[in-house]
Structure formats: C-alpha cells, structure tokens
Amino acid sequence: MENIALIESFSEFKDDKLIDRVTLMAILEDVFRNALKKKYGSDDNFDIIINPDKGDMEIWRRRIVVADDDLDLENEEITLTEARKIEPDFEIGEEVSEEVKLIDLGRRAILALRQNLISKIHEHDNTNLYKQFKDIVGEVYSAEVHHVRPKVVILVDDEGNEIVLPKEKQIPSDFFRKGDHVKGVIESVELKGNKPQIIMSRTSEKFLEKLFEQEIPEVFDGLIMIKKVVRIPGEKAKVAVDSYDDRIDPVGACVGMKGSRIHGIVRELGNENIDVINYTTNSSLLITRALSPAKVSSVKIDEESKRAEVFLKLEEVSKAIGRGGQNIKLASMLTGYELDVIREGSSAEDDDVELTEFSDEIDGWIIDEFAKIGLDTAKSILKQDIADLARRTDLEEETIQEVMRILKEEFED
After folding, report:
1. Is 349 part of a structural domain of the chain?
2. Residue 22 pLDDT more than 70?
C-alpha cells in the first residue's frame, strides 16, 4: 500500500517524541485534510481512517451520482458513467464511496505532505516543551554538560532537552567539563522563533532559596519561612528566616550542628559564605542582625530617605564593612536601607582606622607585615619613620611610602 512508508515515518516520530496516539492521529488527519483541500478545494466529503500503530491509513471520498450531461461537476459529485466503473448498479442520486490513494494526490503533494507533517510534529513537540518548562520556572533542575563555550554552557537533560547556562548566570568559580552534572534554577523560557530556549541560572537568589528547601526539612515543610535572600554569587549571601512556631530556632535549624545542614549548600555554591539571620519587622533590629558578625552599638533611621546611621565601636567597623564592602552591601540589600557607618566617639584628634579597612587598596600580605611588628592602625604607622619601618619589616621603602600616602588621604578627607 502506498500509504505505509509515510505512516511508518510518522510512527518513528511517535517513538522519538513520545507523542500519544490520540495526538498523533489528530496531527495526521490535519495534515492530510490540508493536502485534500489543496487538491480538491474542499475536504468536507472525505473520511480519513488512520491506524498509526499498524502503519495503516485509508482516505475515502464520498460523492453523489449525477447525470452524465451535468457538465458543471462539484467536488461532491460524480457522473453516472464514472460511478458505474466503480460498481455497475449505481443510480443517479445515490452516494458513492471511493478510496483515494496517496499517489492520486501527486508526487509533489506527497513530498509537501511529509514535510508538513514533520513541521507539525516539531511544532507540537516545541509547544509541549515550552509548557513543560514554563511550569517549572523557579524550580531547581539538573542536567549534563554537553558543550562548553566561552559565553555559554549547553546542557542536556535525560530526555534530550537542551538547556542554556549563560556565563553571566554562572558562579565566578564555576568550572565545567563535558559530562559534568550541573544543578541550577530554571530562570526563564523564551521562544526563539518556534523553538523554546530554556535558561538556567546558578546566580539567582531563587536558586539559594530552593536549595534551602531541598536541604532543610523545616523549610520544605513550611515550618520555617525564607523572608528574603540576597547574594554576591560565589562570595557571600545573607538569608533572613522566620518561624510562626516559637519552639523552633529558625537560624539553628537552617545551619545545623556545626554547620552540618548548610554545608552542602555552601559547597554547591562554590564555598559561598552564607549568613543566616532571624527576620524581624523591627527595622533597627533587622539592620543590627544584618550587619553580623559586627556588634552594632545603635541605629538611627530616617524612614523618609530610607537611610540609616549605624554606630559602631572602632574595632567593629571593619567587620561591619567586610571584605571589599561585601557585608555592608548585602546588609543594605537585605534591609532596604542605605547604611552609613559612624565610628563611635570619633573626633579629629583621637580618630583612628584599623589597617584592615584599607584592604581594597593595600595588599593583605603588606598589612600582615605591619601587624607582625604590632602596627594595625593607620595612625600607628603614620607616626613611624620610613627607614625604620623598612628595617623592621620585609617591605621596600617605596612600598611603605605608597602605604603612607593612602593612609594620609583618609585623614585629609
């Protein structure tokens, strides 16, 4: 039968794409009806019988018998002479059913029909894929590295679906090889033409939140709520948690004994340092907790400008600011306030600054050299003689001069 080869190709699509039988039959009928409309002008008088499981298909054309002298034949009509070639006892007015072979449609129509079918099945597949991943946007997903490119990593899941992990959605310390299993959150699904592009992210705050749900049963069960997450991916994060049950310590439950519960999350995020704090509606207290590990003396809030002055003892300032300003930046993001650090009891005469506060401008090993001889503040160094410092440390005089220039600018400002 001429139809078998075409049907067999449809069955291959069915196996590859896991299209259910009803959907496949609907696609097949739609494709054939379009071909019939092009050939005959209408498909109203055609019956299509498809059995894709057996690789069998039949097309039957129904027409009414009319007199031979009816020269203006419609698609739904057949002359008496033509009808009697099918069966000799037909009469005018009776209905004739005749099977239509694919070959009757013409070679070009058959090729177009096959191409149309392939297109329809891919369209169906893409629509299903789009819906499938739209439903899990914001959820954690795992896939295998298929190809690593400079600006993107292409992943493939167990069903062969392609997922894109752009460079800007990767943690800075991430390093992938072909075959690696990668976990991230499905951030978005975008249609590129008719094909869905699935975007994964490992830098999203949602990824960290979902990891908490996976690793901490109380969060998964809803006993502990994650109120807000802020991150500098791969470096540091702060997570505010709360619980309606006073018997539960939300921070302790999230961190676990000696950090046992949070360790897996930290490892997944490239050793990102995670601070977990108790959420509160008291803005002043929330700011105090957000600046941990620094101990805040007091907070003065201006609600109108959404700014807050945070007063700290000198030895707490560097802790509040953190390396590269990360701690205070995240605290500001978490609380929603612009934070200004005020050193307690500071004045033009007695104000001093810990040397570690200059870590953005002075290398750590240089700061360590000064610390070895008991010099850990700006003024303690500025009081020294350059030549004497060069003798007591492993530093060159030019290096010491540059350090002093940086320190002097602090007090000039």
Report:
1. no
2. no
Query: What does 319-367 look like in DSSP terms, one character per residue?
Result: HHH-GGGHHHHHHHHHHT-EEEEEETT--TTT---BGGGGTTTS-HHHH
- Cβ count within 10 A of residue 125: 17
- Does the pLDDT at position 348 exceed 50? no
Asked which of 85, 116, 131 is the last residue of a domain, the reply is 131
Quick one: pLDDT at residue 20? 62
Q: What is the pTM of this model?
A: 0.61
pLDDT of residue 271: 93
3-class SS of residue 291: coil
Please indicate, yes or no, whether residues 148 and 125 belong to a single structural domain of this protein. no
Identity at 96, one-letter amino acid code: V
User: How far is 25 from 139, CA to CA, in rounded Å?
Assistant: 34
Q: Are residues 230 and 333 in the same domain?
A: yes
Instruction: Report whether the peptide linkage leading into residue 293 is cis, meaning its omega lies within 30 degrees of zero.
Output: yes
The answer to whether residues 31 and 115 belong to one domain is: yes
Do 111 and 174 lie in one domain? The reply is no
